Amino acid sequence: MLSFAASMSIAAPAGSHAGTACPAEPAMEALHLPHLKAALAAGKEGLIVALGSSSTEGAMASDSAHTYPAVLQAALEEALPKAHVAVINRGIGGQDAPEELARLETDVIAVRPQLVIWQVGANGAMRHADPVVFHKMVSEGVERLRAAGIDVILMDNQRSPRVLAATDHIVLEDSLRDVARATSVNLFSRSRLMDAWSDEGAKPGLFTAPDGLHHNDLGYECVSQTLAREIVAAITAPVAMAASK
Disulfide check for 114: which of 36, 51, 56, 65 has CB 3.0–4.6 Å away? Predict the structure, then answer.
């Protein structure tokens, strides 16, 4: 089994907040990534698909290297020097659950990743998506991914002025949490993460671009570094031994 280095460093993000340190992280719900862990332990390439909308595509990042999938890949490569991990960006701006579900087979499952990170719900909230339909679509997508032998992380919404102004964002975030529980997949909560940062004095505006919706470079950096640490913790955790009788 591979021995992974779990220490990670945070590089200073580019842009107007260059040199600003990411805030301390709250305790996050542990991720369970058996397929990715098994692939890396067997010496195979770890393949991750980032599915989502403009937050995944990288709107308002200074360049493609500062999108969250790119930062995530760089952080994982640094933390796991004996492994090869690739993160494929399948974000398309303006989309949400209906459009992403429609391209799930061609853009995601056909690539045969061990892990999919599905960022969904922000555009749905701003468009007043039917919560029942949203829940059904995300559930269907998750079940299709699980049936294909893929680990799943659902990612909820950023705390930004335009998302917060959409009253439906809370309902859809609750729906993502319910789907994660019902289907036994992971939830990476940006909303909870950014709320914790705000409680410590790092308000959402520090991580938000001038458009009032997307992350700036610092936001993408800090979210991605947190997610990378959680993924590393999941794949380096020792296998629990069955209790002797």
Answer: 36
**Residues in CB range of 33: below 8 A, 6 or more apart:** 114, 115, 151, 186, 231, 234, 235
Distance CA 12, CA 123 (A): 29
175 Cβ neighbours under 8 A, 6+ residues apart: 121, 131, 134, 135, 138
In order of 50, 88, 124, the CA distances from 46 in angstroms are: 13, 11, 30
Taking the CB of residue 107, how many other CB atoms lie within 10 A of it?
A: 15
Pairing of strands 115-119, 46-52: parallel
With cut-offs at 50, 70 and 90, classify the pLDDT of residue 179: very high
Return the domain boundaries, the chain: 34-236
Q: From residue 145, how far is each of 6, 110, 209, 219, 225 by CA, in Å?
A: 28, 11, 32, 28, 25
Q: How many residues does the chain have?
A: 245
The tokens for 179 are 């789907």
**Is 132 buried (19+), middle (13-18) or exposed (0-12) by CB count in 10 A?**
exposed
Q: pLDDT (tens digit, 9 = 90+) per residue, 107-132? A: 999 999 999 999 999 999 999 999 99
